[in-house]
């Protein structure tokens, strides 16, 4: 006797995407605005794409270095001292050019107040730690 043919059931796949999770990136508009501020001239699209790749690689390397410094110190969090060590190794901070001078030179007043302790009236030091 002939057996009736029945279709084989195929197990359903889970609907998870096969894509790798993307790393967070700086917004393109921010990179473009910063680069235009310093370049002060028109930039072609090809040149801007190269600038974008370079900035991504730079910040990736920067974060990896900061992670290594904090890990070497036996901590799980990155502190300001790690950033200062990194900037010293890059040659941005020296004995003649301390970090506070760079902050005063390049950051707006509201950020300076957050980063540099300043004595205020009433004998208070802002920001308090």
UniProtKB/TrEMBL annotation:
It comes from the Eukaryota. Transmembrane segments: none annotated. One of its GO terms (molecular function) is protein heterodimerization activity. It comes from Melospiza melodia. GO terms for biological process: chromosome segregation; kinetochore assembly; mitotic cell cycle. It holds the Pfam family CENP-T_C. Residues 23-118 form the CENP-T/Histone H4 histone fold domain. This is CENPT protein. Gene3D superfamilies: Histone, subunit A. PANTHER family: CENTROMERE PROTEIN T. InterPro entries: CENP-T (IPR028255), CENP-T/H4_C (IPR035425), Histone-fold (IPR009072). Residues 10-19 have a biased composition (Basic residues). Residues 1-26 are annotated as: Disordered. It is found in: Chromosome; Nucleus. The keyword Nucleus applies. One of its GO terms (cellular component) is nucleus. Belongs to the CENP-T/CNN1 family. Keywords: Chromosome, Nucleus.
